Amino acid sequence: MEALDLEHWHDFFVASAGASAGLVGLVFVAISINLKQILERPGQAERAGETVIPLASVLLISLVALVPGLGIRTFGWELVVFGGLAWLVTTRIELKALKNRHYMRALHIWSRIVINQPANLLVVIGGLSLLMGFGGGLTWMAAGAIFSFAGALLNAWVLLIEILR
Prior knowledge:
By secondary structure, the chain is mainly alpha-helical. The chain has 6 helices and no strands.
């Protein structure tokens, strides 16, 4: 089954590594351009972190996936660990934002949750699927990467453009 075989996913992981590295760079440019405004607004520095964490996770996962001879079960554990850590940290940031009301409208926090929670949880589900040997395998991880990219694009826009309004 292709969803459980790393070799069939080589091109995806090459593209994913490049895309996540590029988006991490975009986020750091956005942060550096608007650093003063980001630091002045409550919760925006955390939002920047919330953007970088899933992308860094996808980047690390993609690079590990490209290591020759990596076993699928070992990779499954790496997905669970990287995805789980990313999920824990971003969830903590989102809970803090909810508690401290670090958003302008309820829609803002919910859009972050709807994108960031699946981004990280789908990676964990993909890892568990690889460990169990069925259930979609790397397709889950791919969906998590796509959510990570969507969240990064949304947050980069906010940190670069919307923060100046």
